[in-house]
Amino acid sequence: MPMRHVDPMASAPLEGGECVARIPGEAGIWVLILGEMSVFGLLFATFLFYRSKAAAQFAASQALLDRNIGMANTLLLLTSSWFVAGAIQALRRDLTTIGRGCLAAAFACGAGFVSLKAIEYSEKFSAGITIAGDDFFMYYFVLTGIHLLHVLIGLGVLAFAAMISVRGVANTGRMRVIEGGAAFWHMVDLLWIVLFPLLYFLR
Amino acid sequence: MKAILGGLATPIWLLLVAATAASWLLGTEQLFGVTAEAVRASGISVLLLAFAKVRLVVRYFMEVRHAPLMLKLILDGWIVIVCGTLLGLYLGT
Fold first, then answer.
1. Among A34, A149, B16, B79, fewest CB within 10 Å belongs to which?
2. Rounded CA gap, A78 and A192, in Å?
């Protein structure tokens, strides 16, 4: 069977439709995503390495974390990802209003994550727990802090995607920018999916 | 609305939420008992569940299932290497 030519600007896969292999978004965004994922992979491993040196102390500090907030934040990010996936499907069909609505809902979920993180940090600070507390909390603040920075960047990306989501965007190069932004947001979700059990649940 | 609700995003989201609930039970309840082996089994399950969720996000939300083979292999490689390293470090204690 002859190889099918893969047009990098080929129209995006609509669910249920036939599609050829294609990279969602610009190729450059994937270089960034893979780079970020490699860095976080190293950070996760570093955390577990030092945890193995002081398991009892890490467990004692872990018990002070607020799992309810962590759980709520996980659900918020998963739901935001669902909205972003819905936004992409809608925008590809030129359902601009629904697409922008989904992006706004995803943004709201992300903003909720940031608010809960702020509450969580302030609870820790008022309990006298800081980044200088012990090794566990040093990693807790560094890892969640770097992740939070990515959430904030992701919120900017979502806002920008909503801004350029105008009628007729489906068949323009801008759709690829929106797809790249969506992929970045899903990466932010994906990193939290690993970070959450690592910090809150692993005993 | 069918464009959003009729696709795969909704069942995948439900699976992710269910897996999150399962991690919660594994991480907070003593499902397997209180022995060191039971705690370790919970820990392994929590890690494996997390990376199963990661693969769902990669494949369905990031649309890597439609991507060229190279990108699929790179992301599966990341999952295998990071998950394997974390399991090794966790079990090495």
1. A149
2. 10
Residues of chain A positioned with their CB less than 8 A from the CB of B63:
13, 24, 88, 179, 183
For chain B, the 3-state helix, strand and coil shares in percent, each to the nearest 5, are 80, 0, 20
Alpha-carbon distance of A96 to A169, in angstroms, equals 8
Q: What's the CA gap between B12 and B5, in Å, rounded? A: 11
Model confidence pLDDT, tens digit, residues A43-96: 999 999 999 999 899 999 999 999 999 999 999 999 999 999 999 999 999 999
**By the CB < 8 Å criterion, does B25 face chain A?**
no
Cα A91 from Cα A175, distance rounded (Å): 8
Residue A35: pLDDT over 60: yes
CA angle A85–A184–A90, rounded 5-degree value: 25
B32/A168 Cα distance (integer angstroms):
54
Residue B71 in contact with partner chain A when CB distance is under 8 A: yes
ipTM for this model = 0.94
C-beta separation of A105 from B13 below 8 A: no
